[in-house]
Write a structure and sequence with these properties.
homodimer; alpha/beta; Isopropylmalate Dehydrogenase; globular; binds 3-isopropylmalic acid
Chain lengths: 355, 355
C-alpha cells in the first residue's frame, strides 16, 4: 500500500482537443487509485489552452508559473489548436513550464505491447524496450536569433543552438544512471561531422561523464544513422541520450516503430525534486479526431504511471501499468489507432475494471 | 543512342574504405557504357582521402577545387577514416565541394526494389517511390558559432543555423518543379513550433514559392511527425523538401525503410549547370567491411545513373538502371546487406553482363 498521510497535489491542464478527453480519463483513473491506495491525491484543474488565448490573449495567467509551483506534479493533456500558431501555443505554456521548473529531463520510454502491432515485419518476435532521455531545457530550442533584412532579397534568419557544460553534464548523468539500472548501455546521438560547434562539445562532455561510470558502455551514433537503426534494429537499444531536437525526432520515430504514437508517454522531470515535474502524452491535440471519443487514452494513462512513480506511489503505478497492458491485449478494450474498436470511455472503463 | 562528339569529363574521387571498392565498380560500368554508347567519357582519378590527410596534412591540394572546376561531374566514393575526426574529413573535402560549386540540391531518391526486403511488414505490397530534396548549402550545417569559457563551469557552445531567402527559394523551386513532373505533392519538413526563428522563415518562403505553382499541393509536417510517418505510411510521400539537417536524417531513415542504406544514391546538383555537380552513394566508408569485397556497389552505380542523366546521357542511364534492377532480383547477384551472396565484384560482373 502507498497509504501515507501525505497529500499529493496535482495541477491538471487538459488543454485543447483530445487533451480534454484523455484528461478526463486520467481523472477517473486517479480517483479510483486514490480510493484504493489512499494516495491523498488532490487535483486542481486549469483551463489554460488555446481557447483561453483566443479569449484573453494569453494561454495562462501572468502568475501561472507561480501557481503551479505549489503542486507536486503537473499533468498536461495537449496544447495546440488551429488559429493559434504553434510557436505561440508552445512558447506560451509548455516550454516555459519545462524551463521555469528546470525539467531538464524529458523521459520517453518506448516499448512493444502484446496486442499492439508494430509496423515492422516479424514485430511480435522483436520486443523493443528502450528509453529516450531527451535534454529538455537548452540546445536547439532557443529563442536566441532573429531575422535580418526583412522582406529584402538578402533576408536571413539566424537560429542559435546553445549548449552548456552544465546542461549536457546533468542530462548525461541522468542517462548513465538510468542505464546502470537497466541494460548498461547508453547510445548518444550526435552529428559532430555536420554541426561542428555544438556536437563535438556534446560528445566531449558526454564522454567525460561516462568515464565516471565505467560499468556503462557508451556508444556514439550520428543521428542520421541512429534514425536508420531505430528502424532496422530497434531491439538493440537500451538508453538513448539526445539533445532537445534529436530527442524530439528520435522519440516520435521510436514510438512509431512500436506501433502507435497514441500510447507514448513522457515525463518532464526535475530530478532534484525542487520543482514540480510535468507529465504528458507525446501525442498532440489532434484536431482531426477531437470530440469524437476516438482518442487513445493510453499515452495519458502511461504518463500517469510515470507521475505516480515520481510521486513515490510505486504500487499504484504498477497496478495501473498492469491494467494498461491487459486492456491493450483485447481489441474490444483498445482504440482504433491500435486496431481496436473501443472509444476513449470504453478503454477507461476497462482500465477501471481491471484496477 | 547518346552518341555525340561531346566529351564528358569526370573527376573520380574514390576516397577511403569501401569508397575505393565501389569506385572500381563504377569505372568498369562506365567503361562498358562508354564503349556501347560513345559517351566520350574521360575519367581522371584523384587520391584525395583521409590517407592523403594523414600523409600530407590535407585531404586535397590547395588548388583542388580549381582542378575540379574543369570537369563535367565529380563522382565520389566515400570519405572518412579512423584517426581522422569526421569534422576534419568532411569539412576538408565533401562540404567545400558542395558549397564552392553551389551544389545547393542534394537529391536522394528512395524506392523499393523487387528482391530487396523492406523491414516493414507487408513491404512487398507497399511500393515506396519518393525523392528527398535536401538543401545542401546552408542551414544548420554552418561554421558560424564557437565555444565560450573553455574548461570552466559555464562553458558554452553556440551553433548558428543560417537560412537565407535566396537559399530557401531555390531549393523550394527545385522541389516544386520536380513534383510537378511527378505526383504533384511536396511535403515540407518543418519544426516551426520549436525552432522559432529559422523554421517559420523556411515555412514562409516555401509557401510563397508554392503559390507560384498552384498545380502542386504543399503539405507541411513537423520533422518529428514526418519521421514517424516515414515508418507508418512511407508509400504516401512523393517529394519531400527539407533543410540540410532534416534532409540528412530523413533520407537515411527513408533508405532504411526500403531495406538498405547500401543502395541509396545521391546527387549534389548545381541545377544552373555553371559548376560541376557531384554524385556519391549515401553510405560511408564502412571501415568494418572495407577490403573484404562485401561492399554493395549499387548505391554507387545508382549514383552513376543520376550522373548520366545529369550529363544528358539518358539512354545509358536507363540501361544501367535496368541492369541494377535485374541484378537485385537474384540473391546470387546481390550483396549480403540485401540478403544476397555476391561480392562487390560479382555484382559488378552481373551488371556488366546485363548491359
Ligand atoms: C558525413 C556527413 C557530413 C554527411 C552529411 O550529413 O551531409 C552525410 O551524412 C551525408 O548525408 O552526406
Ligand atoms: C510541440 C513541440 C514543441 C514539442 C517539442 O518538440 O518539444 C513536442 O513535439 C514534443 O515532443 O513534446
Amino acid at each position: 500500500m502507498d497509504t501515507t498521510t501525505r497529500t499529493r497535489r496535482i495541477a491538471l491542464i487538459p488543454g485543447d482537443g483530445i487533451g480534454v478527453e484523455v484528461a478526463a480519463s486520467a481523472r477517473a483513473v486517479l480517483a479510483s487509485l486514490d480510493a484504493r491506495h489512499g494516495l491523498g491525491i488532490r487535483i486542481d484543474e486549469f483551463d489554460w489552452s488555446c481557447q483561453r488565448y483566443l479569449d484573453t490573449g494569453a494561454l495562462m495567467p501572468p502568475d501561472g508559473l507561480e501557481t503551479l509551483r505549489a503542486y507536486d506534479a503537473v499533468l498536461l493533456g495537449a496544447v495546440g489548436w488551429a488559429d493559434v500558431p504553434d510557436h505561440v501555443s508552445l512558447w506560451g505554456l509548455l516550454i516555459p513550464i519545462r524551463r521555469a521548473f528546470s525539467q531538464y529531463v524529458n523521459l520517453r520510454p518506448v516499448r512493444t505491447f502484446a496486442g499492439v502491432t508494430s509496423p515492422l515485419a516479424d514485430g511480435e518476435n522483436r520486443p523493443i524496450d528502450l528509453v529516450i532521455v531527451r535534454e529538455n531545457n537548452e540546445g536547439e530550442y532557443s529563442q536566441v536569433g532573429g531575422r535580418f533584412g526583412q522582406g529584402g532579397p538578402g533576408e536571413t534568419a539566424i537560429q542559435e543552438a546553445v549548449f552548456t557544460r552544465h546542461g549536457i553534464s546533468r542530462i548525461a548523468d541522468y542517462a548513465l544512471e538510468l542505464a546502470s539500472s537497466r541494460g548498461r548501455r547508453v547510445t548518444s546521438a550526435t552529428k559532430s561531422n555536420g554541426l561542428v560547434h555544438s556536437m563535438p562539445f556534446w560528445d566531449e562532455v558526454v564522454r567525460e561523464r561516462a568515464e565516471l561510470r565505467p560499468e556503462v558502455e557508451l556508444v556514439e551514433e550520428h543521428v542520421d544513422a541512429l534514425a536508420a537503426k531505430l528502424v532496422l534494429r530497434p531491439e538493440s537499444f537500451d538508453v538513448i541520450v539526445a539533445s532537445n531536437l534529436f530527442g524530439d525526432i528520435l522519440s516520435d520515430l521510436a514510438a512509431a516503430v512500436t506501433g502507435s504514437i497514441g500510447i507514448a508517454p513522457s515525463a518532464n522531470l526535475d530530478p532534484t525534486g525542487e520543482n514540480p515535474s510535468m507529465f504528458e502524452p507525446v501525442h498532440g491535440s489532434a484536431p482531426d479526431i477531437a470530440g469524437k471519443g476516438l482518442a487513445n487514452p493510453v499515452g495519458m494513462l502511461w504518463s500517469v504511471v510515470l507521475m505516480l512513480e515520481h510521486l513515490s506511489a510505486g504500487e499504484a503505478a504498477a497496478q495501473l501499468m498492469d491494467a494498461i497492458e491487459v486492456s491493450l491485449r483485447d481489441p474490444a478494450t483498445r482504440t482504433a489507432d491500435v486496431g481496436g474498436t473501443a472509444s476513449t470511455e470504453q478503454v477507461t472503463a476497462a482500465v477501471l475494471d481491471l484496477l
